[in-house]
Specification:
By secondary structure, this protein is an alpha/beta fold. It contains seven helices and twelve strands. About 30% of the residues lie in helices and about 25% in strands.
Length: about 250
């Protein structure tokens, strides 16, 4: 046995032969799909609209139930609603539409809602919420009415609500949607400093290149790994430089 060999990192989310078909559809949107997200993975997922990316995230969270295959999260089989409900506080999901995630009167209430549900006192939850808003640079929004925010502001508030729950892994569906370039750079900086694994869906290769160590795609209901695809943009943001440049 090689004394220098490192044991494989723990598998956080593992899907094997997962298939899912929407009622009335003539073919599955997920077709014997396999995915293994391990501790330390920072995975980007790019694919055309309608390829099943959002369905994949919803399946991981138990919002869509596959007709076949297996899902293990934190090495626990996900077989019924009780199993999924037990991991939803540990897996942070950012929905594609922020309005699906924000429902409290004010920004501060929305971000404090998760910690309160996890058993924090109101004082503790508010403290966590304020610190999270500061981290994202949006503390000035704390007393704003959520439904009056811009699309980009809602995106950041929804992300703050997810991060305030201290998840062990993040699933982010189009996190840069509605954000200007400066805020995208700030978000990239925040993600790169998080000590957490994540899977990010995005159409923006330059953003994914800045915050991930692997980029996958989807085709015909299956995951294509970064060994099977080749993606390149002539202008992108590198992990070690904030400013776009041209080759």
């Amino acid at each position: 046995m090689n004394p220098d060999a490192h044991p494989p990192l723990a598998s956080l989310i593992k899907l094997e032969n997962v298939s899912f078909t929407y009622p009335g559809a003539d073919k599955p949107v997920l077709d014997k799909l396999a995915l293994d997200i391990r501790q330390g993975d920072r995975i980007g997922l790019m694919a055309p609209n309608g390829s099943g990316k959002t369905t994949l995230l919803h399946t991981i969270m138990g919002l869509c139930r596959p007709e076949s295959g297996s899902i293990r999260i934190f090495d626990t089989p996900m077989e019924d609603e009780e199993d999924f409900s037990g991991i939803r506080t540990r897996v942070g999901l950012l929905f594609q539409d922020s309005d699906d995630q924000l429902f409290c009167p004010t920004v501060l209430d929305d971000v404090a809602f998760g910690p309160l549900n996890l058993g924090a006192t109101r004082h503790e939850a508010m403290d966590v919420a304020i610190k999270t808003l500061k981290t994202l640079g949006i503390k000035d929004l704390e007393n704003q009415i959520t439904h009056r925010l811009s699309g980009g502001q809602k995106r950041l508030v929804a992300l703050a609500a997810v991060l305030a729950m201290s998840p062990e892994i993040l699933l982010l569906d189009e996190p840069t949607s509605g954000l200007d370039t400066g805020v995208k750079l700030k978000l990239a900086e925040i993600l790169n400093h998080l000590d957490i694994s994540y899977l990010i869906i995005s159409h923006e290769f330059d953003f994914l290149n800045a915050v991930t160590n692997r980029i996958f795609s989807m085709e015909e209901g299956k995951i294509l790994t970064d060994d099977e695809i080749h993606v390149h943009h002539h202008e992108h943001v590198h992990k070690h430089g904030r400013h776009p440049h041209r080759h």
